[in-house]
Amino acid sequence: MIRKIITTQYSVSEQIALDDVNVLADAGVTLIICNRPDNEEEDQLAFADIAKRAQELNISAIHIPFAGGQMQAADVTLFQQALEGADNVHAYCRTGNRSNLIWQAANTEQVEKTTSASNVKYDVVIVGAGTAGISTAASLLKRKPKLKVCLIDPAEDHFYQPGWTLVGGGVFNVKKTRRNMADVIPKQASWIKNSVKSFSPDENKVILEDNQEIGYQFLVVAAGIKLNWEAIEGLTDTLGQNGVTSNYRYDLAPYTWDLVQKLNNGKAIFTQPPMPIKCAGAPQKAMYLSCDYWLKQEELDKIDVSFYNAGGVLFGVEAYLPALESYIEKYQVNTNFSHNLVKVDGPNKRAYFATKNDKDEAIVVEAEFDMLHVCPPQTAPDFIRNSVLVDDAGWVEVDKETLQHTRFKNVWSLGDVANSPNAKTMAAARKQAPVVAQNISDALENKKIRATYDGYGSCPLTVERGKIVLAEFSYGGKLAPTFPSWLNNGTKPTYLSWVLKKDILPPFYWYGMLKGHEWFVKPVMREE
User: Which DSSP state fits 39?
Assistant: First the structure.
C-alpha cells in the first residue's frame, strides 16, 4: 500500500490488505472508507474482512461503493456525513482514483478547513518524484528504514527518459519507458500528489498549491527542469505535426521515428539550444540514429542533414570530439554553430535562427526543412526560480561537493535543478543521490557530513544503431570511466556500450537505482 496524502486529514490508496490496516492504525487513522464494490475482480478482499480487522484496532470502517465513472450525488452526501467529526481518514478503491474524486466532489469546505490546520511534519520532505527524488528517498530508507519520508509531486506517471532517444530511433517501444508513479514510490514513503507553491526555509516548511503547509526537519529539492517550449515562437502550435518533433517528450518520440522512416529525400534539421540542458548529447543522438537509418536505406545521399547548435562546439569534453567528428563527416552533416532556434513556421516548414554575421551584428537566418527535430531551451521550474533557494541564474544554490544548500543548512538539492556545475544527466543523479542520502543520515545523528560528489556525469552518445561513444567525465571535463579501457574504450564507439545502454541500463534503473541499490556509486567520504 502506498498512501497518497491528499490533505492533513485525508489519504487514499489502492486496494488495501489486512496487514495494511495495521499500518493505518500505527499512522493514527481513525476511519477507513471503502469506495469499491465487493467482487469487482477475482480474489478481491471483501470489505467485511477489512471492517473486522479495523474494529479489532478501534478504527471505524464505512462502505460507500460505486463503480468507476458512476459516482452519484447520494454517494457524495454519505461521504460528507462520514467525514463529519473524523480527524484522520483513509479511503481506498482499486487504484485510489475514485476515493480521490469523491473527496474532491464532497469537500470544498473541508479543503478550506484543513489548509489552516497545523503542519504535517516529516523527517525528510523531498520535492520532486523524478529520478533524483525517488533515488534519494530509496537510498535514505535503505540507511534508515523507519525514517518518515515524504515525496511531493503532482505527476501520475514516471518516465525513463533516456529511453526516448531509442524510441525516436525505432529501437524501443515508448510504453516501456513509462510506469505509474504509485508503483515506483518507495513503499515506506508517503506521497503527496500535489504541487509546491513556495518554500519557507526559515520556518522549515513547504507550502502547497492548496495552501497546506508541510513541515520538515530536512528538505531535498529535486524538482527537475522545465522544458521551455514556449520560448520558441510558433513551436507549441506545430509540435507533433508538419514534420516538427522532439525526443524530449514522451508523446513525440514515436513521431520522430515515423518521420525518419518516411523521409527519403529533402532537408532534415536538428537543433540544440543554449546550455544548460538535460543530456547535452541527446540532440546529436537523434541526428546520428536518423542518419544511420537513412544510410542503411541508401537514402542519405538524397537528404540534406544540418545541425544547428546555439553553442560553439560539438561537445564540451574534448576527448570525445574525434569520434563524434568522424560521424559528422560520415553522415555528411552540415554543422552551424552559434545558431539559436527562435521561431518555427510549421505550415510553411521554415525555421529561424538567431546568430551573428561577419561584422558581429545580430541577425536572424531562415532555413527550410522537411523534418525538424527540436531540443527546447530549458530553465528551472517557475516555483523554484521564484523562491529564496536560488542563485542569480535561477538554480538551487548548493555546495558542489556535499550538495548542501549554501545558506540553509538543512536543505539539499540534486539532479537537474541544482546549480552544481555538472552535466545534467540521469547518471549524475544516480551518483548524487547516495551523497545526499548519506549526508542527511549523518546530519540526523549530528555527525559531520563527509560524503562528496565529484561531478560525475555520463552521456552515452548513440552514433549508430549498435555503437555508442560512452562519454563519462567529472568536474572540469576530467575523464571518469567506469570500466577499464581494455574492456570498453569510452572515447571510441563500441558495441559493449550499446548493450549497456539498450539492455542493461533500463532494468538497472527500474530495479536498482529506484530501489536504493548503489552499485558503482558508493559515496566517497572526506578525510576527517
Answer: T
Alpha-carbon dihedral angle through residues 178, 182, 188, 193, given to the nearest 10 degrees: 120
Give the 3-state secondary structure of residue 516.
coil
- pLDDT reported for residue 522: 85
Catalytic residue among 34, 291, 375, 459: 459
SS (HEC) of 424-477: ECHHHHHHHHHHHHHHHHHHHCCCCCCEECCCCEEEEEEEECCEEEEEEEEHHH
Cβ contacts of residue 104 below 8 Å, gap of 6+?
none
Task: Choose, from 150, 279, 291, 375, the residue flagged as catalytic.
Answer: 279
Q: Is 291 among the catalytic positions?
A: no
Strands 178-180 and 157-159: antiparallel
List the beta bridge partners of residue 159.
Answer: 178
Q: pTM surpassing 0.70?
A: yes
Q: Strand pairing of 213-221 and 411-413?
A: parallel
Q: Are residue 76 and residue 210 in the same domain, yes or no? A: no
Question: What are 104's three cell numbers?
Answer: 474532491
Query: Nearest CA to 443 among 198, 149, 124, 152?
Result: 124
Residue 358 included in any domain: yes
Q: Are residues 368 and 330 both part of a single domain?
A: yes
414 within some domain:
yes
279 carries an active-site annotation: yes
Looking at the 3D structure of the chain, how many domains does it have?
3
> Could you report the per-residue pLDDT of 74-129, keeping only the tens digit for each?
888 899 989 888 889 999 998 888 898 898 888 644 333 333 333 568 999 999 99
Residue 528: pLDDT band by 50, 70, 90 thresholds?
low
CA distance 349 to 37: 54
Q: Are residues 50 and 96 in the same domain?
A: yes
Strands (E), 128-174: 149-152, 157-159
Is there a domain that residue 520 lies in? Answer: yes
> Is residue 426 one of the residues assigned to a domain?
yes
User: By residue range, what is the domain housing residue 416?
Assistant: 163-189+196-225+380-525
Q: What is the pLDDT of residues 156-181, one digit of tens each?
A: 999 999 999 999 999 999 999 999 99
Burial of 437 (0-12, 13-18, 19+ CB in 10 A): buried
* Cell of residue 445, nine digits: 545523528
Query: From the CA atom positions of the chain, what is the Rg in Å?
Result: 25
pLDDT at residue 396 is higher than 80: yes
**Last residue of a domain, which of 375, 407, 433?**
375
